[in-house]
């Protein structure tokens, strides 16, 4: 699709931004009251045209840095701009459907995740699966892969530049340089600038009915007030801004708004961005401040590089979790058995079982056929994860058999199984109800959720039925019988 062609406004309701959803999902009551107070008082904001802007930034926003695009090479700009266009025209940037207030809503911004091979990033209860940005040296790259690699080149530049900015800031504030004796500090800086992924964003404001920024009257809000989620504490966020047709004289600029989190006394700032500019929220700024994006007149791309909290968000992580569970199944004369019936072992197996199904398999397939076809890197790993998950269904079946046959430790196993099965059954129903909503009939078939894993009782290859209600009743009955004895 030509990026300049008008697209039909989707019929699924739009949510203003991830900030609105994240705020409503997890906002404590005291913070909701504080937001109301801010709205009532209409605290002012400053922009570069105001006399006190520079002093305010120096005092309260000193970790916010705007870098002119002229400081990056023209070759890198060209690669990045071609990369944005390639990914958009090939259908890799699209709006995500998420759950908000028991409804399916669409994000106004079209996105995709690019990053280290096997990286994921979870936001708004949706797991994004990264397109890899590095490849085997011998591989002949497609246009899309070349586009992804361009953002790896930008990522490398950001790492070096942010490291330099923080090092200079440290020297300016302390009067000394970071030398070889500061190994611990250098390690912290390296950790907090180790960008692992970028979310690419695209929005054409002419296609979407945007709301006004609610507290400061900054303008049409494209991304509402928020802190970026799932990042390493104290880590930097680096952003590249691209507005392809900004040379037009009749256009208003895109802006980034910043405010001290939950503070109604310190004025906010609103800073316009030029095409090709970069901006940085250094060090702890994402922890202590909130930011928003104010829409300009023209379509805009951005690449937002993050130090993702990756302890539970990589393919390697979930593969290791799978192996931990599968280590407890053995075969004697081709008959499966559980090696250990220890409480902690069985509890962990059930946790991993549900994690794979609801945090990985269903998260991957529910994003549709186009999503899966675009992520060739992920197809074989997801196939293996599903095989491992199927083995865990068998392991759960072996636990159920022990309970039903009233063998030793059956009561202990039943106490582990019952809450796990109840939760799994509820989550399956929740996901299936999410899939069957009428709104999905109004979106292209390639973006409709895939019912996977899903099976009928006629499928003899599955150890357990999809609906676990009957087994839940059996386990409950066994527990009640045991308790009455």
From TrEMBL:
BP-aspect Gene Ontology terms: DNA alkylation repair; regulation of multicellular organism growth; RNA repair
Top-level taxonomic group: Eukaryota
Compartment(s) of residence: Cytoplasm; Nucleus speckle
Keywords: Cytoplasm, Dioxygenase, Iron, Metal-binding, Nucleus, Oxidoreductase
GO CC terms in record: cytoplasm; nuclear speck
Record's subunit section: Monomer. May also exist as homodimer.
Catalytic reaction equation(s): a 5'-end (N(7)-methyl 5'-triphosphoguanosine)-(N(6),2'-O-dimethyladenosine) in U6 snRNA + 2-oxoglutarate + O2 = a 5'-end (N(7)-methyl 5'-triphosphoguanosine)-(2'-O-methyladenosine) in U6 snRNA + formaldehyde + succinate + CO2; an N(6)-methyladenosine in mRNA + 2-oxoglutarate + O2 = an adenosine in mRNA + formaldehyde + succinate + CO2; a 5'-end (N(7)-methyl 5'-triphosphoguanosine)-(N(6),2'-O-dimethyladenosine) in mRNA + 2-oxoglutarate + O2 = a 5'-end (N(7)-methyl 5'-triphosphoguanosine)-(2'-O-methyladenosine) in mRNA + formaldehyde + succinate + CO2; N(6)-methyladenosine in U6 snRNA + 2-oxoglutarate + O2 = adenosine in U6 snRNA + formaldehyde + succinate + CO2
Protein known as: Alpha-ketoglutarate-dependent dioxygenase FTO
GO molecular function, one term: broad specificity oxidative DNA demethylase activity
InterPro entries in the cross-refs: AlkB-like_sf, FTO, FTO_C, FTO_C_sf, FTO_cat_dom
Primary location recorded for the protein, binned into one broad class: cytoplasm
PANTHER family given in the database record: ALPHA-KETOGLUTARATE-DEPENDENT DIOXYGENASE FTO (PTHR31291)
Family per record: Belongs to the fto family.
Annotated Alpha-ketoglutarate-dependent dioxygenase FTO catalytic domain residues: 50-310
Pfam family, one: FTO_NTD
Catalytic activity, EC: 1.14.11.53
Native source species: Saccoglossus kowalevskii (Acorn worm)
Listed cofactors: Fe(2+)
Keyword Transferase: no
